[in-house]
Amino acid sequence: MTETLTMPDLALDAIRRYPDADNPSSFLAVNGGNHYLRLPDAPGVIVYRPTGRYLVQFGGPFAPKESRARLLRAFLDLAAEQDREIVAIQLQGADAAEYLDEGFTVNQIGGSYALRLDSFSLRGTAFMQLRNKIARALRSGMAISEAPLDAWHDRMRTLDTAWLGSKGGARPLEFLVGEYGGPYQDLRRLFVGAHGDELTAYISYSPVYGSRPGWMHDLSRRRPDSPPGVMEAINKAAIETFQAEGVEWLHFGYTPFSGLSAEHEFPGHNRGFQWFMKELWTNGEQIYPAQTQYAYKEKWKQDVVLPEYIAFQGEASIPALVHVFRACNAV
């Protein structure tokens, strides 16, 4: 019998126990508002959100290999019972086999980026512009510290409102974007930049499990009138802290439409959707600022680019993609 839950404790346990797919964004599984499917006689969970006529799944099954196919079949049964279809987002390459076996169309939709910290340094001409930008932010008098959320929570909410207002009244994203607060805040880390008591910017980091363990550069915001380089300065301070602790990797997360390559595609991928992703990378800034986001990540000279995938139940579908954006509160 299939059991559906809304308790994220199961997901936290699963992403820690079964990180085999190496999904660097797996901590998003514990976001508020997620739904979970599990089987009573098989370990692991599936993370999803019902959105219109779709069940939008985050990642693949967070489960041992022997349970993954069973969980996916149970999820297909659940979708059929609800007269819905499945679309899965941010699958990793290691997730694809079970979806292909069940007749899904799997296409690359973007890339995720990671920096090896044991060999990272800002020395050299390649980082000259980045160093100058950081120095400019520090000359403004900004002080950077790692801080508990309670001390800054209200000011972060105020900053969030100002930041969203500067984006033309954009909606606050969710599901595929990190959050702060809630029962798992003690597993995250918060670095803030401030001028006196006034919050200028912050970056929240979430844990990453698997073969590249470390931290994810997750939710970040800055005042619209902040000086250039504030985010870079905060991230540099966090990197130095992580390096002193012996942390192996800093992940910069998923950017849609970026890192696309024909060599990453699986057999049976949809060529029209592949073209559409390239078109969105080139001309889709109004839909999602992928190139702007990528430019910030690229300035750190990433060591690893991980392809990320979308899986459609049956044929590739633009309505299914739109429902992914709906699940994220983007439309």
From TrEMBL:
Main location: membrane
InterPro entries, A to Z: Acyl_CoA_acyltransferase, LPG_synthase_C, PG_lysyltransferase
Gene Ontology MF term list: aminoacyltransferase activity
Subcellular location(s) of the protein: Cell membrane
Annotated GO biological process: phospholipid homeostasis
Domain of life (superkingdom): Bacteria
Keyword Ribosomal protein: no
Record bears the keyword NAD: no
GO cellular component: plasma membrane
Residue span, Phosphatidylglycerol lysyltransferase C-terminal domain: 21-312
UniProt membrane topology term: Multi-pass membrane protein
UniProtKB keywords: Cell membrane, Membrane, Transmembrane, Transmembrane helix
Protein name according to UniProt: DUF2156 domain-containing protein
Source organism: Actinomadura barringtoniae
